[in-house]
Amino acid sequence: MRNDTAATPQAIFRKDYVAPGYWVDTVEMGFDLDLDATHVATRLTMRRNPDSAEKDLVLFGAELKTLQLRLNGVNLKKSAYTIDGETMRIPNAPDEVVLEIETLIKPSKNTSLSGLYASNGNFITQCEAEGFRKITWFPDRPDVMAKYTVVLRADKKKFPVLLGNGNLIEQGDLGDGRHFAKWEDPFKKPSYLFALVAGSLVCQEEKYKLGSGREVLLQVWVEKGNLDKTQHAMDSLKNSIRWDEERFGLELDLDRFMIVATSDFNMGAMENKGLNIFNTKYVLANPSIATDIDYAGIESVVGHEYFHNWTGNRVTCRDWFQLSLKEGLTVFRDQEFSADLVGTSTGRAVKRIEDVRVLRQVQFSEDAGPMAHPVRPDSFVEINNFYTVTIYEKGSEVVRMYYTLLGHDGFRKGMDLYFARHDGQAVECDDFRAAMSDANGRDLTQFERWYSQAGTPRVDVQTHYDAAAQTYEITLSQRCPATPGQPEKLPFHIPVAMGLLNSAGQDMPLHCEGYEAQAGVNSLVLELSAASQTFRFTQVIEQPVASLLRNFSAPVVLNISYSDEELGLLLAHDSDPFNRWEAGQRLATRRLVRLTKAVQAGEPLALDSMFIEALRATLNNDTLDPAFRELVLTLPSEAMIAEEFEVVDPQAIHTARQFARAQISQHLRADLLSAYEQHLTPGKFSPDAVSMAKRSLKNLALSYLLEWVDESTFELAKTQFYDAENMTDRLAALAGISNFRGQPQQQKEAAKALQHFYKEFKKEALVIDKWFMLQATAHTTDVAKVRELMTHKAFTLGNPNRARSLTFNFCNANPAQFHVADGSGYALWAELVIALNKINPQVAARLARSLDRWKKYPLHLQEKMHAALEKVAAAKKLSKDVAEVVTKALAA
Length: 892
What we know:
α11 runs parallel beside α15 (689-705), α16 packs antiparallel against α17 (727-738) and α24 (841-848) packs parallel to α26 (880-891). The protein has an 8-stranded mixed β-sheet with strand order 6-5-9-3-2-12-15-14, with no helix packed on it. A 5-stranded mixed β-sheet has the order 17-18-19-21-20, with helices on one face. Helices cover 41% and strands 21% of the residues. By secondary structure, the protein is an alpha+beta fold. It has 5 domains: 18-199, Immunoglobulin-like, CATH 2.60.40; 202-315, 2-Layer Sandwich (Zincin-like), CATH 3.30.2010.30; 318-452, Orthogonal Bundle (Neutral Protease, domain 2), CATH 1.10.390; 458-554, Immunoglobulin-like, CATH 2.60.40; 762-892, Alpha Horseshoe (Zincin-like fold), CATH 1.25.50.10. The protein has 26 helices and 31 strands. The longest helix is centred in the middle third of the chain and has 34 residues, at 389-422.
């Protein structure tokens, strides 16, 4: 199964789950750490599982040199076991087993960044999902939980820091310049949560008193020279601990909690018990290198990984099909954490809008493509391919729907019951649903379809007002498009939060038949569970405008025929900030679709005054949070506009959107200049919500001003670039300068600014990632420019952050240049996927997703995409990771 090619991928099915034949009680490991040859000695105490149909003792291993294998003190001969791919079977093993294993691994040769590998001369591990098998033979599956004791031994001068899971119980010198550290994790954990770090690192540490009065040690470990960039991560960790205690009554259960930052990491971070390993992108920050987005990302990811200590570690997954059990729930928790830290209702709405934009732009697209899968998949070929936005972001929306249906207190009751029942266990998504159901006395049987059915439901809306009877009817009908393997879908249980607005934009009292009226409550959650339902409101004294799906109460597409006047009313007055923003997006999308069609037809382009004036009113409304105004004034992305078309024309979409931006720039020039000046943030940089909001609106105003070719606005941006004392303002100005369509002299100055930026920050890897990203997404960057940048001395495919900064951003975030008619973008993509496949299959597979919806494009582009996919599929030694993606894409 591990040697599949693109032509013959084999799937693993959830229905075939069999409990492990043996449980592991304790794991004792000793590591003699050497970058070229690390010896690993492992002792497992195991016992037969009487409830399993599996009779053999089954272990998994990959890329291992096995030096010795002993069962109950007796060396195992090769005839006593079989190895098929990564699976070892030992038949006829006794009921109680002590298994001793010695393996040899080569961390410096491990470019996959899975298992134990080298990063800048340090040792790092990444064992989720199946990396532990690259360290030793083990029943490497999440339902096998054991207690671990680990001894690390290494050269003291080269590797002065030795870190492991849990608590440090002993350390000392060994002689010959070597030393050791012994770590013990007092809690059972699956092997995917194992971690070790060894190297030359420094840390910021603080003692922290928990709510119970117990004192714990918090540490943030980084490479030398980065200690001045750790304070925000430490503050985020303390905030996370405090929030989880206050919101869910969950306390840190270890004596210490450690974060380690590494620049070589496939993902954002990993929640290993007590020893979280992070991509430097989500740890390192100070005003000179990090943007406001970086600060927010660090806060969110630190929170996410800490919250996993309970939702993922203390209660984990029975199998990888249940991945969203921990990830969807923990994304919901980190979203709520970030929203709560802002504190204001508008601030929470801004966070909600930002999260929904990601869901719609990326997850809805995934739902509509060949890699579409349910939140709880039924099968996979390579589990690494299922760390997706469906598992994470849509999974979070499923958890949020519990919260919407059950309320704040009801959701907390469900969480409490979940932990009371399952602490220390490996469980299923259905167990979480049962806890929510039982704690609240609610029948949530139908809600299971959110886990088992793929696709984005469509909810169609029809309304009818009877003035004489003063009744208003809303008919909601649901349908869900076919997805791979699921041609037909049953109705979902969909919570639709809503309100009614009168002609003045005020909320109207709600009297809905079948729902209890509550005085002073102007929002109601309708529960759509049938294919079609009609909800009848009484005492409706005038024709209302329905505000539906408030706060985006379900991950669906809402089809409702609003007039421009109704959308204008919602944009100006809706008490629900999300739907206020949504009205603006609907107005903008209508115009961008019309403009795109006009570009395709060669017709004159125009943007109407109603839309311009609605934006002007929003921009100048000082009662609105600046961050909210920035979101309303940001046009839907080219990717979102593409979703409105059966056949996508990237160049026409780009032309239409740029025209709209230029028109807004021209008509709102004075207003934008005023907004820019009013939202300056002089003085010392602060990443607080108010300052971030001001910078977001100011820099949006600057980006619009630069759409209208004018020397004065170019000079404004240039001044901001050279004078800025924080990375947020500096990068925003550089992005505007780089995209400015001015005279040759201004283009030379833009190139000069890019070089100045590089020279100043060439030793800051995360900033150089930004430098590559900015150029990858520039409107003027074509395939030839990307190839030129790939030859830059600072570029490498070997580091995931650097690879993503240029190649991923070009392929995924610069559609007009990537999808050029000659197919050169697809040829570059194929070369990159094949090259990355040899280095790091996980990263390669993620880039491979760039073409999984190739059939949505015109035939002349389809032909070239198909050829590129076929080229990748025919590549030698193609990994399962990439093979699964291209096979499904070609079969679509």
